[in-house]
Amino acid sequence: MSEYTTIYLRNKATPLLEYKEHPSWNEIKDLSDDEINKIEEERKEHNRNVERSMGCELFYLTTTPSRELTVLPWNPSPKVLTKELLGEVINFYKEEIDRCKTALKEQKEDIVRLEARIVKANVELYDKINEDIYECNQSISFWTEELNHYKYLFDKFNFAKDIIDNDSNAENYELIYTKS
Asked: Which of 98, 95, 96, 90 has its CA nearest to residue 157?
């Protein structure tokens, strides 16, 4: 299942509202249809105001279970993205970038070893070594794609950090995120 994270830049002077959930069955079971519709309209209007209170959307990202951003806790309402939490996110992506670079280096070293073996190999081993080289190249393609993905996300969060690190911005603005 995918996770959706959106980062916003908002003015601190605007109150940050929280989403209203649907009322429970016990709360509405004795109400008329008109009363239920009125409550639902009020809830929808409040939630539209929540979205307005979040400010300007900076970026949006989708993560899958294999690329989960577990550093940001899930919450149904918008939460402030503190400098500490932002630092953890950036460190998470730095570690992922390093992991990808290490994997790429290992695959390239494997290819060098295999190419050295192929020169000395007889015909029977040639196909097996060639297949191993092909698999290493496939792995290199995968790790390169992963590396580019993590660099892209690192750059986005680093951009957000630069906004907040600017003292004139930090006085009046903050970053928030939603995760669903």
From this structure: 90
Rounded CA separation 36/147 (Å):
51
In sequence order, what are the residues at sequence separation of 6 or more whose Cβ sits closer than 8 angstroms to the Cβ of residue 87? 161
Could you tell me where the beta strands, DSSP code E, fall in 81-160?
none
Q: State the sign of the Cα–Cα–Cα–Cα dihedral 124, 126, 129, 130.
A: negative
pLDDT in tens, 66-89: 556 667 777 767 888 888 888 988
Question: In the chain, how many domains are there?
Answer: 1
Range of the domain at 116: 3-16+54-179
Tokens of 151: 């660099």
Is residue 39 in some structural domain? no
Q: What is the pLDDT of residues 121-157, one digit of tens each?
A: 887 788 888 899 999 999 999 999 999 999 998 999 8
Q: How far is CA 83 from the centre of its chain?
A: 17
User: Could you tell me if residue 174 is inside a domain?
Assistant: yes
Does residue 157 fall inside a structural domain?
yes
Q: Determine contact, residues 90/151, Cβ cutoff 8 Å.
A: no
Question: Taking the model in full, what pTM does it have?
Answer: 0.74
